[in-house]
Amino acid sequence: MSKTIFMTGxxxxxxxxxxxxxxxxxxxxxxxxRNAKSREPEFRNWIAAHGGxxxxxxxxxxxxxxxxxxxxxxDRVRIRDVHQIQNLGALMEWGGDAARMQRVNVDAxxxxxxxxxxxxxxxxxxxxxxxxxxxxxxxxxxxxxREKLVAxxxxxxxxxxxxxxxxxxxxTTKLEADILVRRARAGGxxxxxxxxxxxxxxAETGEAHQMFGIEGLVRGVQTGALSAVPGRxxxxxxxxxxxxxxxxxxRVPMLSWTAGEDFTVLHQxxxxxxxxxxxxxxxxxxxxxxHHVPLWLLKPLLKAGLDxxxxxxxxxxxxxxxxxxxxxxxxxxxxxIGLSHPGIEQALRKSVRYLAAQTSQVSQAA
Length: 366
Fold this sequence. Notes:
- There is one protein chain.
- The protein is an alpha/beta fold.
- It has 14 helices and eleven strands.
- It has helices at 13-24, 36-49, 73-80, 98-116, 136-142, 146-151, 153-165, 169-186, 215-223, 242-251, 273-284, 295-310, 328-336, 344-365; strands at residues 4-8, 28-33, 57-61, 84-87, 124-128, 191-196, 198-200, 229-230, 239-241, 262-265, 292-293.
- The strands form three sheets. A seven-stranded parallel beta sheet has the order 3-2-1-4-5-6-10, sandwiched between helices.
- α4 packs parallel to α8 (169-186), α9 packs across α11 (273-284) and α11 packs across α14 (344-365).
- The radius of gyration is 20 Å and the shape is globular.
């Protein structure tokens, strides 16, 4: 049966690939974006070129930075009758404006959850969080008990006041949104939380118009600025390809048992960071660094200006860790829909080639 999905972040990396997968399955996507009328022809062409039915995708004018998203009355009525909300939009800017991130990542999520409670046909509220929040060690290092923050408003306010004082607005706002969704889920909203790792390009083509997480590594290897492997032996940045994640998001929320579940989506075969950098260097014809530099030493160096040279902001170091993650629920769902991971090193090579080619084209155009 065809479903109607309201999607935020539809023109972003995860959104557009998921929209193409949904449209390929005959589902209707109403995608929130700025300048919808002027962007829709190009976007529909992209959907068609990536296997989707362009007539199934419609962009509607709106902005997550505006209370009520700036929607007109007609679109508000249409959204009320959707079967799914896919909340894929987020503002990810290292060192960006904290107030804007609070509005887009937290306040907008709260508004969507309030709408979800009134929607008569809503079957799923799909929220993109992050894989780090699924690690108990992550919460221990922060010094908080997540379940206590879900249950106790005073504890939540106190915790996030401390986190904001640390000056990491992206991480803080994404954590707060995660807590809001868990609260709404406990109150009856049929929400699922999908926690993807660092997303790279398509397994076959390497294509992705943005790849937060590995661009800095690729740039550092290209320029020679990455002279050491960040972190310790055993640290990693788990990966997932965009085509795998998009297929997961398009099909798993349709499964009958998924309401109330968390899904950590990553490739367990992702190599350690030293090997990952070695693959990048080999693909670029560069020499890979051999020595490690502890994160506690690297952080002050980046803050002192090394971030501009390496292209790696200090906030990105949070994604380098030795945590391990339980992906069993996601793997169960993947088996049910017939989805399997591609070889991750080969996919990484193709993503590096794609990034390098795009960088070369930009340089030539400049």
